[in-house]
Design goal:
By secondary structure, the protein is an all-alpha fold. It has one domain. About 65% of the residues lie in helices and about 0% in strands. It has 7 helices and no strands. The termini are far apart. This is LexA-binding, inner membrane-associated hydrolase.
Length: about 180
Amino acid sequence: MFVMGHVGCTLGIVVIIAMMVPELRDRIDLRFVLAGALLPDIIDKPIGNIIFASSIGYGRLFGHTLLFVSVLAAIGFFLHGKNQDNTICLSFATFLHLIEDRMWGIPEVLFYPMYGFDLPSRTVTYEHWYDYFATMAVNSYTPSLSYVFVSEIAGICVIVVLCIAFAGNLRKDRKPRPHA
């Protein structure tokens, strides 16, 4: 998945859960959901694919592990008040990121360090650091029936639907002006 796939799919899942469990609506902070939806990639992609591209060359490192999600959840459970809800939103969205990336197919990363302390690596060299992002964007938006392309389109569709619903709610909440 790429950015829109993670953001859209995670938001869609959280909104559906909030609709099914109304008690959660006031406790969900979408800013933390958005941050959690991208957090593993924000941490791992620059480290593995840019900073250590010549030695690691892999963008699924520590942020893509259950250990990372567990640490976030533990922090959330030990906090009290509003910050607890925010951290739990962050850890839940991060967990959804792992599901969306189908991390069960890479158990040595998902269950790190249970399979040992070595993470997968690939040596990929790009001429410039931004070539990685250009390559990913082209691969993500080239029409095909690939998982990445379909998830990006699904994420974009979810975002559009949520924006339309949000705009409709804004209109309903706005009071009509009295005519002069």
